[in-house]
Amino acid sequence: MAQDARIYSIKEITRYIKMKLESDKVLGDVWLRGEISNFTHHSSGHMYFTLKDADSRLKSIMFASHNQRLPFLPKEGMKVLARGNFSVYERDGNYQFYVMQMQPDGIGSLYMAYEQLKRKLEQEGLFAESRKRPIPKFPQAVGVITSQTGAAVRDIMITLQRRFPAVPILLLPVLVQGKGAAPAIVKAIESMNRHGGADVLIVGRGGGSLEELWAFNEETVARAIADSVIPVISAVGHETDFTIADFVADLRAATPTAAAELAVPNIRELKAGLVHLETRLQQSITRMVESRQQQLSRIKRSPVLTNPRKFLLQQAERLDRLNERLNNRIVRKSEREQERLLRLKAALTAVQPTQQLAAARKQLQITRERLEAVISSGMKDRTMKLHAAVRQLDALSPLKVMARGYSLVYDESEKRLIKSIDQVQPGDLIKVKVADGQLECQVWAMKGEQ
Questions:
Q1: Rounded distance, CA 50 to CA 76, Å?
Q2: Distances (CA, A) of 137 to 142, 196, 199, 231, 270
Q3: Protein fold of 130-265
Q4: Potential cystine with 252: which of 139, 237, 246, 367 (Cβ 3.0-4.6 Å)?
Q5: What is the residue-averaged pLDDT of the chain?
Q6: Greatest C-alpha distance within the chain
Q7: Rounded to an integer, what distance in angstroms lies between the CA atom of residue 20 and that of residue 16?
Q8: Predicted pLDDT at 249
């Protein structure tokens, strides 16, 4: 190695390569076509992925400051066109592609964003028929949110004035195309709701391309329509144009003219309807009068009015029969009540207090006699048992035994009964109890049984 050869550090050579890549005219701003794989959307907002084709792979990154403007969400396997520049990540020494712009390859990015937002809001239930409010049949005022110029506002105003001239029109002009259109539409809807005055809102514009109608595909506009307290009729484009606003609105009109027709009734049709109802009412009244006249004629021809005396005689005869039936019923009821009274009197006599008292006294006397008999029988039985016990006790008495010649021998203290010669000694004093008294003796000698 030559002595004057320069030796570089890894950091220095990596930085040199990075500078070369970033200064290259081609690599500094290039469009690439590839398929996304290993896609990761980091919590920081940055997107990390690999762009690949049939032969090669390229590590790529798209920072949050760039991907926030994407009108669609990249997915695994999606083919895209990506614009960016190449540089080196110095820590690892790897070159990477830094993406600044991206769009789907083979399908418009706006259409992709449209489909993604449509699926998202549909899953949230913003398109559900159950949450949509009915349009009032006779609004007190109509709010119109559209461009101040163009055919749409003219068609709406002319149609409203032609169909229902008396209704007030509250026009709030807004941008309907371009960068500031979506915020302007949202602000107008919120203003109409905040200040009130309108019973229904027409929000829309004339037809156009997907890019020109894009303000009505913005999520902020869709949510403003969904949050509106005032029912909203969307009037965007022609019959073949559908926007996100059409799906969220309470009612979708194919054209601005159709929206005006749906917002208010046709005064000519109302007048024709009133004339029709008036005709039907007159015909109904005529038929009712004719029916009542025929009924009155039948009443006039009835026997009651043609020969009232005969009718009164028939009623008088009927009254007599009813009077007779009433009297018979009264007599029969009186007889039944008298019989019932006699039965009650007999029952009352049977339960008079004097008779009950006599019966109670008799029952008491019988009970007393039974009790005395039981007591007397019990006393006799107890007396006999007592006499038998006395006789038995007397027979078992020690005095009776001593009367037959037996005696009891105690020591001098009379506390111990002498039963054996082993309990005394010669010279001991003893006491002998006989039937008629007691002997005090002294032991002189003892002789046991042989």
A1: 10
A2: 12, 18, 10, 12, 11
A3: Rossmann fold (3.40.50)
A4: 246
A5: 86
A6: 168
A7: 6
A8: 95
> What is the DSSP secondary-structure string of 359-376?
HHHHHHHHHHHHHHHHHH
332: number of Cβ within 10 Å? 10
CB count in 10 Å sphere of residue 83 = 15
Residue 445 has pLDDT above 60, yes or no: yes
H or E element in which residue 84 lies: strand 79-89
The residue assigned the tokens 């039963």 is 419
Single-letter amino acid, residue 25: K
Q: What is the mean pLDDT of residues 7-35?
A: 86
Is the dihedral angle over the CA atoms 228, 233, 238, 244 positive or is it negative? positive
Confidence (pTM) = 0.48
Tell me: pLDDT of 142 over 90: yes
Q: Say if residues 143 and 264 touch (Cβ distance below 8 Å).
A: no
96's enclosing H/E stretch is strand 94-104
* 3-state DSSP assignment of residue 287: helix
Q: What does residue 406 show for φ and ψ, rounded to 5 degrees?
A: -90, 160
Please state the rounded mean pLDDT for residues 222-232: 95
Q: What is the predicted pLDDT for the residue at 270?
A: 80
How confident is the model over 366-391, as pLDDT tens digits? 988 898 888 888 888 888 888 888 88
Sign, CA dihedral 88-92-97-102, equals: negative
Q: How confident is the model at residue 438 (pLDDT cuts 50, 70, 90)?
A: confident
Q: Which residues of 353-377 are buried (b: 16+ CB within 10 A; e: fewer)?
A: eeeeeeeeeeeeeeeeeeeeeeeee
Is a pLDDT exceeding 70 seen at residue 95?
yes
> Which of the pair, 438 or 125, is modelled with greater confidence?
125
For the chain, domain boundaries: 10-107, 130-265, 306-349, 405-442
Q: Spell out where 377-436 has E strands.
A: 408-411, 429-434
Contact predicate 50/57, CB 8 Å: yes
- Written as one letter, the residue type at 73 is L
Question: How far is the C-alpha of 163 from the C-alpha of 431, rounded, in Å?
Answer: 154
Residue 299, SS3? helix
- Two tokens, residue 422: 């082993």
Are the C-beta atoms of residues 236 and 145 closer than 8 Å to each other? no
3-state class of 234 per DSSP?
Answer: strand
> Which two three-digit tokens encode residue 155?
């068609």
Among 35-49, 134-148, 158-172, 425-439, whose mean pLDDT is lowest? 425-439
CATH class held by domain 10-107: mainly beta
